[in-house]
Amino acid sequence: MSFEEFVQACSPRLFRTALLLAGQDRAAAEDLLQLALERAYRHWARVCRSGDPERYVERILANASNDRWRRAARRPERQLRPGEADPLAQDQSDAVAERDFLMRALATLPPRQRAVLVLRYFNDLSEAEIADALGCSLGTVKSQASRGLARLRDIAEPGTEPPAGQMRRRSLS
Amino acid sequence: MTDFERRLRAAMESAVANKQPPGNLVQQVRRRHRRHTARVAMAGTAAVAVVAVLVPVGIGAVGHAPGPAGRHRPPTAPTVYVAYPNPNPSKLGAIIPISIATNRPGKPIRLPFNGEIASTLDGRTLYVATGKAVIPIKTATNKPGKPIHIGSGAFSIDMNPNGKTAYVTGIFSRAITPINIATSTPGKPIHVSIGVFPAVMAFTPDGKTAYISTTDGTVTPINTATNTAGKPIHIGTGIFHLAITPDGKTVYAAGVHTITPISTATNTPGKPIFVRRPPSAMAITPDGKTIYVGSQFAVTPVSTATNKVGKPIHIGGGVLETAITPDGKTVYVASDDEGSPGTVTPVSTATNTAGRPIHVGASVEIAITPDGKTLYGAALNKVVPISTATNTPGKPIRHVGPGYPREIVITP
């Protein structure tokens, strides 16, 4: 498979992953995808030999996203309140409003928690596969997923009790 | 999955459902690649210049490795060949011969190619995979010969240790084409299920059996006397690397999360050994006791006697390749990372500890001379000889090729 064929076939899905990792910031997502593809391009023969180039690039994406935020100056986390609806979303259906709210809430999570949730729920990776992709332990993936979900639920459904064993993180409301 | 998790998944899918990447993504990536290439080249120049001034190392002449009994001695001195395919596929790539005795590059052999290179065991011929054909190059003159056309494509080349046959695989091809080295003629293709990507091949030391890995989770033995494929051995996950113990009794097949031993006597798989991170490289010590498995940020020793996985040895970056010195004392680990591109880290097999990483350059490929005295690291537009006795880099051989190296081969 040539690099061009791979980009043509896989870039839409990879771009969507990048968008979610970048908190729906299109410019940041384009940059992230370019960075991941450039690294794959450098080692294209090796990437092909890995047998699953898409998974390989996905892994670069997730790690690059983490690195980027880690290296960047501390970005103030956006505070999001349940009642703080997007003015454009006011006329939208509840489902669309909830979607937008959840996505904005996702963008406020620390990058690693966000990456774990994106890989788990958008890319359908198992916890073991996420641990491989991010180069961390299975325990870290489980705790990050649990905390990320708890925090999202806190924002989206303030006042609801998390399932047993799941930690409740600080409320943003 | 809870209701909230389902809603989160649906929200993610719906939020980005119709989003498309920019149309000129390939051009953007290429542009970024050029910028990166220029940046790394400049950084490398500065770093290596300092090293060269502080630690000048003379690489002594390296003699011939004793070849198998009865085999002809190579007509030329041992030579390093580094393949640099041109990043622009419409332009010629370069194969750079470097004399081990003098560390001087010879005249580049310019060819259109994008595949691998391999040397025959007697060192007389170098084969270059161009994508569609294999071009033989006589090492005495470094002149390309008549292309051997491979109908199913040519990307990987593997040499049978019996010195008689080369096996060529393409991309998107389920055929392996044997080439008779004596006559440079292709034989009848062997058809196996190898998935859509070039698979990895390994030979038993006697050259009687070849094993070819597949990306669909099987390993197929090939009888090299008849060039016929045997019954596929099912492993279960995609196999990306193969390594055979020096006694030829066991093939280790590395999958996504496991390394599976296969008995070459019965062609049956044993109990898989679980490894935490996906293997990206694998090498077995000459005494056959330990496999070193490279992965992201680590190389991990695995005992072949007990199949016990040892403590990972930290390496800064993703492991690209591993090479073990003939005396088995050191594993050299080539790794690449965004933060520190292209280093080679020596790991002592006695203590399983990593030494100081040696900077070589982006996308490093490594090979050790048959006498084990020198390791050559090929990187972006330069080749660095490293003394294995002192683990110090010698003067880099610069301006050797366009872009990144595909492979480095040392003739005997």
- Outline the biggest β-sheet of chain A: none
Looking at the structure, the CATH topology of the largest domain in chain A is: Arc Repressor Mutant, subunit A
Structural class of chain B: mainly beta
Roughly how much helix do the residues of chain A carry, as a percent range? 55-70%
Oligomer: heterodimer
Which percent bin holds the helix content of chain B? 10-25%
Per CATH, the architecture of the largest domain in chain A is Orthogonal Bundle
Question: What is the general shape of chain A?
Answer: globular
* Continuous helix count of chain B: 2
Tell me the Rg of chain A in angstroms.
Answer: 17 Å
Which consecutive residue ranges of chain A, at least 5 long each, have pLDDT under 50? 71-92, 161-173
Report on the architecture of this protein:
The complex is a heterodimer of chains A (173) and B (412). Chain A has 8 helices and no strands. Chain A is an all-alpha fold. Chain A has 2 domains: 1-75, no CATH class; 93-168, Orthogonal Bundle (Arc Repressor Mutant, subunit A). In chain A, helix 1 crosses helix 4 (53-71), helix 4 (53-71) runs antiparallel to helix 6 and helix 5 (94-108) packs across helix 8 (138-156). The longest helix of chain A is centred in the first third of the chain and has 19 residues, at 3-21. Chain A is globular, with a radius of gyration of 17 Å. Chain B is mainly beta and 412 residues long. Chain B has 2 helices and 36 strands. The longest helix of chain B is centred in the N-terminal third of the chain and has 30 residues, at 25-54. Classes of the chains: A mainly alpha (173), B mainly beta (412). Chains A and B meet through helix 1, helix 2, helix 3, helix 5 and helix 6 of A and helix 1 and helix 2 of B.
Describe the protein's topology.
The complex is a heterodimer of chains A (173) and B (412).
Chain A: H1 3-21, H2 26-42, H3 44-49, H4 53-71, H5 94-108, H6 111-122, H7 127-134, H8 138-156
Helix pairs in contact in A: 1-2, 1-4, 2-4, 4-6, 5-8, 6-8, 7-8
Chain B: H1 3-16, H2 25-54, E1 79-84, E2 93-99, E3 109-111, E4 117-119, E5 125-129, E6 131-138, E7 143-144, E8 148-154, E9 156-159, E10 165-169, E11 175-180, E12 185-186, E13 190-191, E14 201-203, E15 209-213, E16 218-223, E17 228-229, E18 233-234, E19 241-244, E20 250-254, E21 258-263, E22 268-269, E23 273-274, E24 281-284, E25 290-303, E26 313-324, E27 330-336, E28 343-348, E29 353-354, E30 358-359, E31 365-368, E32 374-379, E33 382-387, E34 392-393, E35 397-398, E36 407-410
